[in-house]
Amino acid sequence: MSTETPTSAIGDVEGVSPYGVDNPAPVIEPPRQRTGKTPKGSRTNFEMYAWLFMRLSGIVLVVLVIGHLLIQLVLDGGVSKIGFAFVAGRWASPFWQVWDLAMLWLAMLHGANGLRTVINDYAERDNTRFWLKMLLYTATVFTVLLGTLVIFTFDPNIR
Amino acid sequence: MATPTLDKTDKAEAGFADTPYITATFRIRRFNPEISDEVQWQDFQLSIDPKERVLDALHKIKWEQDGTLTFRRSCAHGICGSDAMRINGKNRLACKTLIKDINPEKPITVEAIKGLTVLKDLVVDMDPFFQAYRDVMPFLVTKGNEPTRERLQSPEDRERFDDTTKCILCAACTSSCPVFWNDGQYFGPAAIVNAHRFIFDSRDEAGEQRLEILNDRDGVWRCRTTFNCTDACPRGIEVTKAIQEVKRALITRRF
């Protein structure tokens, strides 16, 4: 459209528009607007601890994960050495048990908290948020518990 | 707008160098609920001095081409904060953006700021934005009797929050924040900046209360440090830094 059409460009492309002065079209509202009725804070420090945990666990995970990847995939023959015997040998030492346990817990909680943030950011309806978070927490608890159980009850003589 | 070249009619002959006027295209996102529920991009061509501002171009369009074009502006000099809009995909004040600075060779897109309800053309509903502002108590709170003289403050204490006093509440920062786009419950950068202005004011006594409000689920911890707000601020406030300072104050308060 150019300067030759001074009238509004919005309009009745297909004849009569159903909207008028007394009958305006619905406006598109952004998700979850703040109003006077927005509930006041819960007065807990949970969000602060979650934020701090992300930073601290991130630093520790850099060391744990890069070390883990080096040992598993690069040093001493690389990935081909990994087998039942290799894992059994490592978990015989409490040091590697603690290493793997810390990595499991930190990575799971770090990832779960990140996903919680994503759900809080993007899930629009309260119900959707609730159920997505429940699914997330269930999966997290299951994985963490199962992993912990395996690390502590691992039996190298199982055949 | 009265320049000596105004009478020159034959622009093609005069050449680009002789006249300051150029032909620029403004692609404006139009919405009028009284006509249609559809949004439409409309192009306006006008010859304008590139040293003029986008607001001047909008005025020219409204006064000379299409009177239905709707936008907010009050002071038109970058103080009132009425005319924040998304120009070429970036939040700016139309009254502080020169046309020559935003490449008038290509069509210049102008649309309403994001994350707030568009009411008509470039006008948005600012109520949720000001609700967040109200919720951080943007006023001086003190205990005890009022002093008979002014409340004294050292230049150093004043300097502490000088940056955040510059806010004009134009909503350019808040409406550039991706967290705010997705969840309007987030306080948004502007509210945090205005809380910062009082939290770090040595005369104020409700800093603790404001920190408590921003410690909430929808407070500073939702900030993703994307720096969109700092980029958008027409007053050059280091918005993300202010948010980080509130975070640090919260953490050091606990430990």
TrEMBL record, chain A:
SUPFAM superfamilies referenced in this protein's UniProt entry, alphabetically: Fumarate reductase respiratory complex transmembrane subunits (SSF81343)
Pfam families in the cross-refs: Sdh_cyt
GO cellular component, one term: membrane
Annotated stretches, region: Disordered: 1-41
Membrane-spanning intervals of the chain: 52-75, 95-113, 134-154
Keywords for this protein: Heme, Iron, Membrane, Metal-binding, Transmembrane, Transmembrane helix
GO molecular function, one term: metal ion binding
Organism annotation: Streptomyces sp. NBC_00148
Compartment(s): Membrane
Protein name per its UniProtKB record: Succinate dehydrogenase hydrophobic membrane anchor subunit
Highest taxon above the source species: Bacteria
